[in-house]
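User: Can you predict the 3D structure for this chain?
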Amino acid sequence: MRAAETVKVYLGLGGNVGDVSANFMNVVSSLNSSSTNKFICASSIYHSPPWGGKKRDLSEQADYLNQVIEIGTSLSPTDLLQFTQSLEASAGREMAATRWAERPLDIDILLYGNKKISLPKLEIPHLRMLERAFVMLPLLEVAPGIKFSGLDSFIEMKNQIVTSQKVEKDSAATRQFKDFLKRL
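Assistant: Here is the predicted structure, written as structure tokens:
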């Protein structure tokens, strides 16, 4: 089902298996080849250690790359979720995998216009994004003037959160992504 008009959406991209940067590029290419979605802009790419779950379960995992992209979509939130899940599957993600498992591509719908949505498989705004510096730093980079509930508390604690989560820009991956965008 399509939305009545084009809606501004922010997607969080992440992954730590395989060529994650290439997966991010494939997401943008797929969005641009779709009649219902349009890539608008992207943050730098950040890297961070695995997050969530039990620390012992994460100790063997590689660091993650993360990015936030802004898109315009005419898809409904549930149809956009299906679309993003199809992109994850095409990158090799197994949806039945353990919650905190490694993955080649993870796409989270962070914000969908100003909507608040609470469905069994979809919460918008994304429930845990304020706890995740690897989401919030790229989101604030791509949308510095954005406002939503809870943002002020993140900004107050930003330096402490970023330091504790060891989130840093990945200059090489960002440069590669920007070169890709020039060729689009």
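The longest strand covers residues 2-15. The helical segments are 20-32, 55-58, 77-90, 133-142, 151-165, 171-183.
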